[in-house]
Design brief:
Two copies of one chain form a homodimer. Chain A is of the alpha/beta class. Chain A is built from eleven helices and 15 strands. In chain A, strands 3, 4, 5, 6, 7, 14 and 15 form a seven-stranded mixed β-sheet that branches. In chain A, helix 3 crosses helix 4. Chains A and B meet through helix 9 and strand 13 of A and helix 9 and strand 13 of B. Strand 13 of chain A pairs antiparallel with strand 13 of chain B, so a sheet runs across the interface. Chains A, B: Keywords: Oxidoreductase. Chains A, B: It comes from Aromatoleum toluvorans. Chains A, B: It holds the Pfam family ADH_N_2. Chains A, B: This is Zinc-binding dehydrogenase.
């Protein structure tokens, strides 16, 4: 918790040359900002930690590259403390890009009010952009059919663990790629994957072959790199790859070589490989999230969350995430709501 | 010309470790085959030479890998000499996979009768699979809109030079990538490209930037490799890549590393990269070829062909093609039709 009247901010200090470390961030304490006319002052409750943050540090993506000196960018959930906008009242729960800090002043158009009475653990992952990304990649981009084999990499991550569950609900055979036997066991036993592949085992190809005896029809790619190349090699004709992210590239200064065999393997097998960004599909979000909420309430969909307490631990949470030490959505708990909801 | 009663065959002798050479083929003379019941004996008029042949030698593609000892596979045009099938009569022009040889015995279902009175130079390229591939890649896969910038690599090749012309007819700005200034000049002056890029110039990135001031919306990829990576780096959001072939990979035993930046660049720019094989689209072929025939007759579409005389020169023609020494469709003239058409 921040002292009263103080806003703690994690400043993005310098661009990593290699892996992200705590030295790339610096905490600063500044005075509480004030809301101007039409603005909102919000208190951050939960800060999101996601692999995309590494990409934002390194390069222009769907957003301009982060510049040293800026508050570290981060989606999150916040509570309205002061509203100078007619549409909002104190206590409203909103989400938006608040950054790693205790308080933010934002324009109403930059936030979204969330329905009251829903656990923050649901709102931050499954009912936020990471869960929505699982829907978009699977159903807007890859479009698996029942009975097809769907492989998800980064399956233990926020998006991956939703993609695994959605593909299973859609009647597919689901193979989850994650690091370590324990994470694989969790994906099979708790989240319903038909099989797990441990990419750290040293026998990715062999495990993939054993787990996908009928080849691979759809690949939800969160990693890129060697895993992508290995999956392409096992893919069936007319396979589809939804490129959601490439966490294998995020910890490199230069994105490096692409997956072996591209584009020859795409031609021979008529594979469609398609990158997507959730922001292009936001018109579908309300319907998708209503559906997710029903699935969560009925217990058919789980919302795995890993919580790190305290804004001061946000950089370490990102480092842990990039090293694959999370199960489900990684979130930093910054504060508790003051207002009853 | 073959001696009477003799069938010359180019045998695929051994798998290349590096570039294709004449030593990978061996000519054999065998007796004229005879047509069994229901079969056709055909005399090859034109043998096609195409980059795909290199791929067939190296690996399983949409067809099983060629085995040493087999007649070198090749599409071509042939004249029916003897028909033991009701639907065909001597003198019919047919196309099919006859291989590099003077005569072949084939099943009627494996050939297609071509309309009489059309120049062989049209039938072998624009009105065959290479021309059809230009249609499929552009209009079934990439789907450019008028005003968009379309880049075609391997633009001097059989498929590329049709893709350039079709994209231009569709109202796009067309940039042709080919090797050498002379080929580029030909593509601009004779085939209507708006600009040409010489990938051998040593300044691919700079030339591409100059030729595509508004970025690239659609890429018709015949090469893969560094050209693909350079185009992806200049591509606009929502760009589409039709992966038709990867000639840069054909002269390698191992397909090697993929294009730099994949899949990260696909995600950031929402790029769709899609391999295709013409055989999946054959239901559209009659309509497409009728349209092409009208365009050819009206002079709006040209059918560039490079003819090599004599079956004995087929291996060298393939070597020349793989080194980029062709303009348009490379064909080997094996014999002239005996029957009036």
């Amino acid at each position: 918790m921040a002292p009263i009247g103080v806003n703690r901010q994690w400043i993005y200090k310098q661009r990593p040359q290699d892996a992200v470390g705590v030295e790339h961030f610096e905490m600063r304490e500044v005075a509480l900002p004030t809301a101007g006319a039409g603005q909102l002052l919000v208190r951050v409750l939960v800060a999101s930690v996601s692999p995309g943050q590494r990409a934002w540090m390194m390069t222009d993506t769907y957003r301009p590259r982060l510049q040293p000196g800026e508050v570290m960018a981060s989606y999150g959930l916040a509570e309205v403390v002061e509203s100078r906008s007619e549409g909002f009242t104190p206590g409203d729960i909103v989400d938006g890009d608040f950054g790693w800090q205790d308080y933010a002043v934002v324009a109403p158009g930059a936030v979204r009010r969330r329905q009251a009475g829903i656990p923050l653990e649901w709102l931050v992952g499954v009912l936020n952009l990471t869960g929505f990304a699982a829907h978009v990649g699977l159903f807007e981009v890859a479009r698996p059919r029942p009975g097809e084999t769907v492989v998800v990499s980064g399956a233990g991550g926020a998006t991956g663990c939703v993609a695994v569950q959605l593909a299973k609900l859609a009647g597919c055979r689901v193979v989850a790629i994650a690091g370590g036997a324990a994470k694989g066991q969790w994906l099979v036993e708790d989240l319903g994957a038909d099989a797990a592949v441990d990419y750290k085992s040293g026998d990715l190809d062999g495990q993939l072959q054993a787990a996908c005896p009928e080849g691979i029809d759809v690949y939800f790619d969160n990693t890129g790199g060697e895993i992508l190349a290995a999956v392409l090699a096992r893919m069936n004709a007319h396979g589809r790859v939804a490129c959601c992210g490439s966490v294998s590239q995020y910890n490199q200064d230069d994105w490096g070589e692409g997956p072996r065999g591209v584009p020859g393997v795409l031609v021979a097998k008529r594979i469609r490989m398609q990158g997507f960004v959730v922001f292009d599909h936001l018109h579908r979000r309300p319907n998708v999230e209503s559906g997710f909420l029903e699935l969560l309430r009925s217990g058919k969909l789980k919302a795995p969350v890993q919580t790190v307490d305290g804004l001061e631990n946000a950089p370490q949470a990102l480092i842990d995430l990039l090293e694959g030490r999370n199960r489900g959505k990684m979130m930093v708990s910054v504060a508790s709501p003051r207002q009853p909801r």
